[in-house]
Amino acid sequence: MSSGIPVYNQACLATDSSSTTPSFYLVGSTSPGSLEVNYINNPDSTTYTRVASQKDQSAWTPNAAKLCYIYPFAISANPGINVIQFGSGSSYLAMAQTNNIVTGATSFHNTGFMSPKLFSWSGKFQGFDTFTVVANDTDTATGRPGTWAGVRLDFRDNGYSIIGYGVGNKPVVPWNALLSVGTYGQYAGSTVPGFTVVFDKSNNGQIFSTEGSLLADMNNTVPVVTLGVPVSVNMNGITLTENAIPITMGNTAYILDKASNGTTVVYSISPGASSTLNRVYKTGDSLPFANNMAAAALNNQILTYSVTKNVAYFNVFDVATASWSGSGLVSGSAVDAPPPLSSKSSAPIGAIVGGAVGALLVIALALFFFIRRRRQSTSKSANTAELAQAGPEANKSDGAQQGDAQHCDPVYVQYVQPQYDQGYAQHQHDQGYVPYEQAQEYQHASPFIPPPPPINQDTNVSYKVYQPETVSPATDNDALYKVPHSDLTDASMNSPTVVNSSPYISPASYRDSFQPGSPESVRAKVLPSTQGPQFVPNAPVAESEARSPQVVPSSMVGH
């Protein structure tokens, strides 16, 4: 056990969402070629235990973003942890166990993952997780620098993880995508259902019902992930920034973003129940936002890891109490509090009172003129004879008085309609109603209709499916299956380079099958039926590169 929290430039958190314990794993790289897996007992701990590590100069780099996921519903003392590194030329996967066993780094053939912000978790069942992602296909013949794809990770053997290009209804073009976040539901038949929510750089969002297949393999056209018809997100006046971080917590998705005052703001959306993106108004102190922040769901809470002035911190946001805890917090303020009702409701009350007083004043004036007119009428009737015999001057004067009375405008009493501040409603938490306006009836918000389930496009679908291949060390004699170092590293071949992806793709989809006599077809094997439900029994599956002695024995991973 070591003291102090390890400091990483790019780290990821592996948490078991099915466990009630507060423990988790922190994964990162301190130097080129290193990968470290650390066990943390709880977020308040200042000590850690290094449970696994690996040295591979051709794979790991401290400056590449990472995600990591733990074996779902782990039943083993040494659960598998899938580590994913991002970047063009530096996208790798590895399976780590807590007994210091780490598989050799693997990668999908001619494929790179663009960003952890475009890698949304949308399905979960036993030893499998499914994701909706943006990937770079660098195949020289049919490659596209960026496209939507489906990924299924196998937590028992990364060699059987799979990626498929062809997801049904495609979201916004990848170069305009800002963020994607997923939610997952309950396993049904041979599919793992969920939702994928994609936000673009124009501050729009779409919700896609999502199905991940356990039957997709290298020898059929069943999509790995299928997206349904999209439904627009009600942004609720919220504008996401490029700093936003997606977090999946079962059937609810959370987003951490940088507020205008430099603190962390929290948003949530439950796409299976509502299409509205909501702000979670916190109480208490605030968490400063850090550009290197890593986050994950832990026991219905949000766990974060950040580094400030070379000091690492863990913090927890409790979604039930809407409050932050941990080190490095700053004093809370009213900036993040919802607008108080009293400050806004005083305006319409004042208008009503003022209108009532004005109406009473008008009534009093009307009574005054009415009584005055009655008195003048009585006086005129008593002097009718005198007025009839009066001279022109007298008649002229009285005519003027009568004219004054005849041209008084009728008095109408009008009740003042209460006017509501329209800006007030726009800043409120989603309350399910629209503000009242004059000459308009109250309305209820339209009920949310979840997106329809996707149609399984398993016939006449042309798409590309890959399984990962091992990046062999320099001493490996089997050069046929190596990924060329020119595709993975810089000229020195010492450390991978992270290259920004090209923002252009081709909209066409296709499928890449094995050619007779190719290395992949020669190495095809019959998959044992006990491997799991993700493949059709006895279907040939391309075997990944022969593993190093670090390969995880199947007996050591829970089934």
TrEMBL record:
Region called Disordered, residue ranges: 380-404, 509-559
Protein name: Uncharacterized protein
Residues that span the membrane, as ranges: 349-371
Superkingdom assignment: Eukaryota
Keyword terms, alphabetized: Membrane, Transmembrane, Transmembrane helix
